[in-house]
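Example A, followed by Example B.
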Amino acid sequence: MEDTIAAISTALGVGAISIIRVSGTEALEIVHKIFKGPDVRQVPSHTIHYGHIIDNEEIVDEVLVSVMRAPRTFTVEDVVEINAHGGIATTNRILELLLSQGCRLAEPGEFTKRAFLNGRIDLTQAEGVMDLIEAKTEKARTLAVQQLDGKVSELIKNLRQKILEILANIEVNIDYPEYEDIVEFTNEMLCPNLEMVKKEIHRILKESENGKIIREGIKTVIIGKPNVGKSSLLNALLNEDKAIVTDIEGTTRDTVEGIVRLDGIILHMIDTAGIRETTDVVERIGVNKSIELMKQADLVLFVLNNHDELTEEELELLKEIESKNHILIINKQDLENHLDLTELEGHPCIKMSISEKFGLEELKAKIKEIFQLEKIEMEDMTYLTSARSISLLKQALTSLEEVEQGLHQQLPMDMLEIDLKNIWNKLGEIIGETYEEELIDQLFSQFCLGK
């Protein structure tokens, strides 16, 4: 990280302002070469200065230059931000000048990567930066801020400290058995400590399901046989005519998608092709895709026709979705009832007439109830949100359960110590105390350029 990097930090396009960011040991010297104004090498830190970007004697743009000296910067390096007039040509020209004077074009996420490698933030805070950029709801924004503040990191650090204390007691007993004043650390003493850690991990994992919902939304798939009202339901929830609706069976042959916001949570709605036996090759592809999406969904809305009896295909689908979050929608309540409701006992059901928007609010209330959306408190969103960190915590839990099994089998302490160290390392990977370089490169490559 000895070189100096530069990148455009604002979205390219026509706008009032664009920002070109420079970070590194040569940041002040390089900007000085193209800036006609106060000598940025001499000005105080955290000050803004008016002047012009020049190419030899040609004025490129009228700018404001922000100077921030290490270590009180995001990257913990000298940072200069050039606030130029928005526009692709001007912004690119300034970036080209910086590169010609010795800067290297930053890789995606490299500014944040440097902040992590220089100890300014940990990995969960780095992920919080990206979450804040991508936040589409107020709850997602609040969750990202909690990560940036380090509250999530504190949870993991506390767990690591508890494991470290256990390891320290084991080490003392193994290395200094001859000291009579050392309390022997027995299996009976270890069990309560492990149980405490285990309960905390379970709590974090359970609450992190909320974090995943807030960050990623709920993947909601609408299924059912042809012509039961799936596309009408999508249109009603979106409050727009997104999907084509006709009386002809098999109208929807591919997926139609839309977004619904419910109590600050995004529902990723997917209308699928009607599921039935068919000889039509294209429709068959659509049916197979519907079944695959159903398996991947967080929530399945299974639409049934109040006027029809259940088919064999529908009974099979009922069995398929039993283990998933699902709601049965008994549509077309305005028609005579031919559906045997006793076959649907044990399943959450909503009676609707989608064409008349009857039952729509009841459906929304049921979704809130299933995912307990009203219990997701704004003031306490201290959750893990990334698949990476949740996976590592689950691995730590697995190792912890192996330690418990070893205790029941009366394994010696030095063998149990290996699994305990693995738990400590896995928790360290979550916040970046321990990491592999390839993982870090992969994680920060997902960031936008200039961040």
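Example B, a separate protein, is given below in the same form.
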Amino acid sequence: MIDIKNGKISFIEQHLFEPKIKDFDEILKRYKNYEVNLFLHIISDPSCRYESGVGSGRTKDEIHKLSAKDRFLSLLENMKITANAKGFYANKIQKGKCFPDEIKSTSFAYCNRLEVSKHFDARQSEYGIVFFHDFLQSNGITPVRYINEEDSESIRRLVFNEPFSIEAYGRAYDMRWEKEWRINRDLAFSTDDVAFIIVPDTEYHYFIEQNSGAKFDYFVLPSSVFKPPLEFFLCAHKMDHHAWHQIRLYGEWKVDFEIFPELSLEEESEFMIECEDYLHCLAKAEIQDVYENRYISRFMRFASSLNGEFLEKTSFKELGLVSANAGEPYETHRDLMMHCYTRRFEIQRDRINM
């Protein structure tokens, strides 16, 4: 989805100009190598390690006392992430002095889909928010720099320009795995800036109801889309924006999801041997669909404002292909679900009461 080169964050558009997928093998060819990278802000629970030890006292009292869910609800309603003090200088402030704005920031992890669950564990929370990369870039997001890896001249430059971005790792804790980026202030946003929010599977329908009640308006994804792939597969049909009521087996025979008994350990093992790659592709397509759908629509609006004669003389003439591929993740999700449920039916046939 996105890539970073020379500090510049870019949308990867190549797949939009590839031939339209025509069969199941082409789905696998595209999605097995498709990388899902994103900027993620996970809401910390007060019990997590970031708010204990040297990190204690850095969160405002009115926020510190709230659970991760309550913090998340407040963030979504107020449309603002509050910056707090962090980094190399946070525990070097004179006693009794307030934390200076120069070291306050909002934090984001740049990670791929398989790394997200590690952030869930570290924050003791599965509530998160993913912004469109161009919004973060326009707000001055910058990668954390590690004092261990900088020379004295570089450190001096950082102190004068972005002390909020400086960290130090050690034997006790090496945080480089977080691939953290920061913005040096509170981050106010609108719903258009948010690609989607992440919530625990058990809270998915609660947050959908909050949307339908006009309390706020965000695309919602269950946290299982970032976990071992079977978890997401088993809940994917319950997702509101797909509106699954039945599934087609063998491409034509509609059945209710309720006919399938819970997978036994033996059945699960057989199913995963045959379908694990498909399930990873399913999760990738789900995230891609939600992130890219609206992002690509901005490009299409821009392109539609250009002179038609100019469009025909440039790569913009392939807009029809871009539009077709923009809808591909949704179709891929459908085809993968049908394929996997057909295989599940074959494995569980003897235990299914038709």
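On Example B: The first helix runs from residue 24 to 31.
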